[in-house]
Amino acid sequence: MINVVLYQPEIPPNTGNIIRTCYAVGAKLHIIKPIAFDLFHPNIKRAAAGRTINDIEYEIYENYQEFSKKYQNKKIYYLTRYGLKNYSDIDFKEDNDIWIMFGTESTGIPKKILQKSIDTCIRIPMKAECRSLNLANTVNLIAYEILRQKNFEGLSKFEVQKGKEFILEKE
Length: 171
Fold this sequence. Notes:
The protein has about 170 residues and is of the alpha/beta class. The chain has 5 helices and 7 strands, in the order E-H-E-H-E-H-E-E-E-H-E-H. The longest helix has 15 residues, at about 135-150. It starts with a strand and ends in a 22-residue tail after the last helix.
């Protein structure tokens, strides 16, 4: 299972998009408070394509200490622009329980947390002039890299509502 951990999210549409991604890939969402908005805000449901947090598996923590205490034995990857390894250098194939933490939109994951886990700090390569990518996009990119390495295990590889042969049908 992929475990997406959001550290103090600030922007409702980003969290909505992340809920949509978690729904699409079967990931569990973990949110560390404080949260800068109401999780049932209309902007979240719109960005989540009609989904709500209740449509996915999730946990919410009062603070980082509560989360850390509960999952202290888990190997957690921290996505940060300061990471010394690229996300694509990580072999996720053998792990069945993958944890990735993403920081706030404005400041990321605090340095004191990152310094305790330097070996699992990973980054997404980008132009030197670029500060960061959109949070929801990074969650999507990392989740699908994990799934790509696992041959998209558990996901449909064709369109199921209109059928596998839909594109071949004449109008």
